[in-house]
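=== How it folds ===
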Amino acid sequence: MENNLKNEKNKPIGIFDSGLGGLTAVKAIKSLLPHEDIIYFGDTGRTPYGTKSEKTIISYANQNINFLKSKNVKMIVSACGTVSSHINKLDNPELVTGVIEPSCQAAVKLTKNYKIGVIGTSATIKSGAYTNALNKICPRAKIISQDCPLLASLIENGFIDKSSEILLKTVNTYMKKFIKEKVDTLILGCTHYPIIKDVINDVLGGHVNLINSGEETAKFIKKYLKEKNMLSEKNSLGIYNFFVSDKLNDFSERAKMFLGYDIQNCTQIININEY
């Protein structure tokens, strides 16, 4: 019995996203939980999710979950804001942890003027999931939302720093509403967005709290596993394996910029339609 429990604890954490964005959660988990193994799936062949129909998003998410279940993971994390906003409609919603609740809890703790902004994909904002969660936690808060349909695609294609004119113009356009409303806290409601947080911070004037959904989700995972007595008991550093549905070399190259090391030898391509 003791060996069985130990084996359960030492199973990997499964994480999925539409592409690169979920690596912000991987990086945060690596820092907070260095002994945990991770299986990551980036659906690079079908990214972005934010412009897809609800039916398609749910179908893709269920396939991603089935793939991670086949890897015998101990928990599944949707590091995708779009999927997280539709979790209740998945085949097995009880198996999946999303990024919305941890991000909303953090935003409410930090806001001083109760004006909270949310940016996300079109599907995420349309779902109202962040607004509903924030209103439930803090009814007095004023929620200002803005869909950012271009950002995930720009990030996936490598437009990620201040020297990118097209990125800067796009961020300036999306941030106008928050500057006008004087929000003091902004939820980056897509795990891609923390990759360009410096650009967003500059456009907002450097005085707005930016909520990194990847970091907040990592904190939640640590708390959850501790409460369930499921933290890894290994003394060695965690082993990470990455899977993608397309563009293997592109993913590996860009992942290196965000994680700080080469993952090409531990990245594989799969046919997600088999799941």
